[in-house]
Prior knowledge:
The structure holds two protein chains of two kinds.
Chain A: E1 2-3, H1 15-18, E2 33-41, H2 50-64, E3 81-82, E4 91-101, H3 107-115, E5 122-128, E6 139-147, H4 153-162, E7 168-171, E8 178-181, E9 186-194, E10 197-205, H5 215-225, E11 236-245
Parallel strand pairs in A: 4-11
Antiparallel strand pairs in A: 1-9, 2-4, 2-5, 3-4, 6-10, 6-11, 7-8, 9-10
Helix pairs in contact in A: 4-5
Chain B: H1 6-11, E1 40-46, H2 50-53, H3 57-67, E2 72-78, H4 82-90, E3 109-113, H5 120-129, E4 145-149, E5 165-167, H6 171-188, H7 193-201, E6 206-207, E7 212-216, E8 222-227, E9 236-237, E10 265-268, E11 270-271, H8 282-285, E12 290-291, H9 294-308, E13 312-316, H10 326-337, E14 343-345, H11 356-361, H12 363-367, E15 370-375, H13 379-384, H14 391-403, E16 408-415, H15 422-442, E17 453-460, H16 477-490, E18 496-500, H17 503-513, H18 520-528, H19 542-551, H20 556-560, E19 575-576, H21 581-592
Parallel strand pairs in B: 1-2, 1-3, 3-4, 4-5, 9-19, 10-13, 13-14, 15-16, 16-17, 17-18
Antiparallel strand pairs in B: 5-6, 7-8, 11-12
Helix pairs in contact in B: 3-6, 5-18, 9-10, 14-15, 15-16
Amino acid sequence: MVQLSGSENIILSGDELLSRDVGELPASPEKPLQIRAKFYKIGMMQYISHLDLVRTMTRIIVRSGVPAWYSQGFNPRLKLTFSLPLSIGTQSECEFFDIRLISPMSSAEIMSRLNRSLTDEMQIVAVYPGTRRFGDIAWADYEIKLTSPSLSENAARELADLYTSPLVVTKRSKTGDKEVDILPFLSLRSCRFEDGSVTLRALLSADSANYLNPEYLVRAAQDRLGLALDDPFGECYTIVRKEVYLDDRTTVFR
Amino acid sequence: MNNISPKTAAERLLKRVEKPGRYTGGEFGQVIKDKASVRARFAFCFPDTYEIGMSNLGVRILYGSINSQPDLWCERAYAPWSDMEEQLRKYRIPLYAHESGDALSDFDFVGFTLQYELCYTNVLNMLELGGIPLLSSERGEDCPIVVGGGPCSYNPEPIADFFDVFSIGEGEAALPEMLRLYVDMKESGEYSRAEFLHRLAKIPGFYVPSLYEVSYNSDGTVREYRPRFDDIPAKITKRIIKDLDTAYYPDRFIMPYIETVHDRIVLEVYRGCIRGCRFCQAGMVYRPIREKSVEVLNRYAKLLYDATGYDEISLSSLSISDYSHIDGLCDTLLKWTDDAKINLSLPSMRIDSFTKELMEKISTVRTGGLTFAPEAGTQRLRDAINKNVCEEDLLRACRVAFEAGKSSVKLYFMMGLPTETLEDVEGIGTLARHVLDAYYETTKGVKGRRSPTVTLSCSCFIPKPFTAFQWEPQNPLEELHEKQRYLRSKINDPKIKFNYHDAEVCRLEAVFARGDRRLAKALLRAHEKGVKFDSWEEFFDYDGWMQTFDECGIDPSFYANREFGEDEVLPWDIIDCGVTKEFLLRERHNAYISKTNKNCAEQCTGCGANRLGGERTWCSCRDLKTSY
């Protein structure tokens, strides 16, 4: 196992915030209460796109009877804001959305009402008074697991080297392809070999200007190690977003 | 891979396919049961994509109706798109049902809803992907019973060899009854495949094709259908639900994650149609007309709103404005839907019922485009098809729309209708110009109005079983093309847009619509060649089909372009849909003299469907209760 400096500095904070009951806080149509839900999206649910997720969650909230706030005007809309979008094919243990309440309801009640409509591969784990802006999310921690019979301790070392040296990738954007060194937007936490798989943990830039898709790391590994990673039952990979952080890379976003 | 379900295995493939949300299952509203406590399992297959299948109301009703019984479990499966099919085949993962993730071959029943003829190749493909032998004669004792139903089962003959049984007519009561017979026979030890099918054939509404022998005349027409047992009926009468108010209707829908074609609450307001257009199959086979009451509809609207969170309610039926209490229904719904921010939509509006009042009530009419279906370009031809709409009705409806600020309308027509001449074709263009004139009259002196557009959408006439035109030949392909070219040459105003359907697609549909059992050979051959998704432009291969017919010694003109004899045994004569052949013949001859009928609300035309019974109807049908 290759342990890199810095990973021991991660401070898990904010979890006491998760257990705060929003039902104890005042909420009224005049002064709606902003609340935050933390949820996971794994297994089959990784294939539901962000747009489809927004639509699904809107309907779930509408039918749940949770007293949510609607925008005023001719076409009232449920005010629902999501944190960092998740690419199709990436699982996540730390997704968030915000709604506003116009009358008090306990966190437990809101969770139970919403989770009734969700499968066990997508469940809300906390409802709490989150106030930080989603724009404050600057880094996301991913677990990327590459599986192939050709992998070894050596491959783990090679990848650790790959992700800690300047790494130029071709980024596609609307304005055309661009060669970018992604090293400044990437911080490898660990990289280890076990049971035919290399599992790496890395913080990737998640602010809107420099969002780094974890698929770039997979592609770089493919190129370096000559892996195809295209056999779902042999040589393949999975990506899980584990946690999101503020700009200091150590304070978890809540 | 041995211990995991096909669906769990498929989860790994989804990175490699487009629109993976089609294959995930796990939607809110799906029914999960404990396999150990279930006595019969039914896989409800829709032979087209998830987006289309999830929009189908019939599937929603039957899914709920079977699942309302605790010991029966109905699941869903859809045709995988070609990229997913490739992956499933590559990794030998069988087609699975979305709920349990089990292979289709693990089920007691595999049911297909047959919505259009061009899905037949998808049925074969899904059977194969599910690990089920294609021909009913090749299925062993342990194979699922393959059952078909839906609109195309009114002429099931082209696909008869692939199905063990067809459920003819409305399935809400019939399907659970079939499953019950199966459970009883299994548990009493009397079950064998043959004995089950034989007993099923004695229950009204079940057609077991293998129990009927077909012989043919030397000219290729059907000579007769002969039952193989004395105790099964010579003709299968369709099943109907007598009282729709008390019939099963779902109080929740499965909520798809991805966008589907019709993603909204659908309320079925009534079945049947009072109009009797002579080309229309739905208008005949869903008779007799049976309505639901405003109270029941309103109750289900509320239940479904609470269960789904949808923001749109669509009132569904063949011609919604014909509902006897349409104003009362709209007013009752609007009492609470406006506050709940729900839009009401009324598809299938008739020209003659389109009023300013209705337009103001219906938000989708308020905001969306307007579509009318005059079907034919001249009054003579509209009379021949019994459309009962005149040009002034259309112009009046358009004026209402234009005054309300609309500047575009879409008009549906059919080309190649029986008795059609080039004059009728040209009439389509003339009608469009009159609509434009109406726009300029209406908006004269009004500033800031946009330039109008009239979109003409022309499909081709397809003779369908159980219509007055079931004997009529379809225009040959060249003639349809010629008519399309002719109309195009008559339209030189850029404000008139002209779209038309692919005549080749319509021809293939005509072949299967009036086909017999001998077409099974062509379907098998096409399937072997990998043919599927025929209703999708990117897959449809007309020349390929013609070659396949040729290889099988089948002349497609025999089915599509031949005038069937009035005394001929028709392949679908084995089915009794309620409406009699005598009535259809009468109607055919009325068409030739452009004689229109009054609609059923005004006067009974004696179609015969009233023999089947049914409650809550406003029409003047004899023997039907008019309690509403």
